[in-house]
From TrEMBL:
Domain HTH gntR-type: from-to ranges: 10-77
Protein name: GntR family transcriptional regulator
Organism the protein comes from: Lacrimispora defluvii
Gene3D superfamilies: GntR ligand-binding domain-like, Winged helix-like DNA-binding domain superfamily/Winged helix DNA-binding domain
InterPro entries: GntR_C, TF_FadR/GntR_C, Tscrpt_reg_HTH_GntR, WH-like_DNA-bd_sf, WH_DNA-bd_sf
Amino acid sequence: MKLFDRSPGENARNYAIRVLLYNIINLELAPGSAVSENELSSTLNLSRTPVREALIELSKSSLVEILPQRGSYISKIDYERIEEARFMRLVLENAVVKLACESPEPVDLKKLKDNISEQKFCLEQEDTARFFPLDNEFHMLLFQSVNKARTFEVIQSQMVHFDRIRTLSLKSSKPTKIVEDHENIIYAIERRDTELAEILMTRHINRHQLEKSELVAAFPDYFIH
């Protein structure tokens, strides 16, 4: 499990949530695996109370399953939840590229292009751990480019289940196609081609569906069947 320093002013409960959430999304805590309050308390150097509170909070998002008399477990990946997150993200991200293409003034895409350059560097270095936050940053910058940063924050709060499948996909293969998707989306926005931008974004957001059978076959214990 990957650990972090506590942020200034961060209480024990929020620290535990932040560390556990990172490790769940990045599959350091594997779907279906048992988690012990005592072991987590020792690892995080916290008392059991904030750890217990963190597990309860994460159970509200269905990332942790707490079974009376049996213990706590990291929830398995549920494709129904992924599909719901995909639907919301697809609707909003297509709306954003439409805004970018139809903006009265051309959208400043320099930060997005710089982000893509960093993504390519990560591919060269085979640094998938760094690539994942860069992928998130690309979409965040896209929302910011049309003054919809708060909308992206709403998406992020609902993406935890979707993010686990993205992590699994990154661990299974090189994310070359993802970078190509990002480059093509920027190309369409620069041309102000709304139809093409929406087609490309739809293909990008739906890409995980093409990998579903492969991922389930490779990691059967990770999924709800």
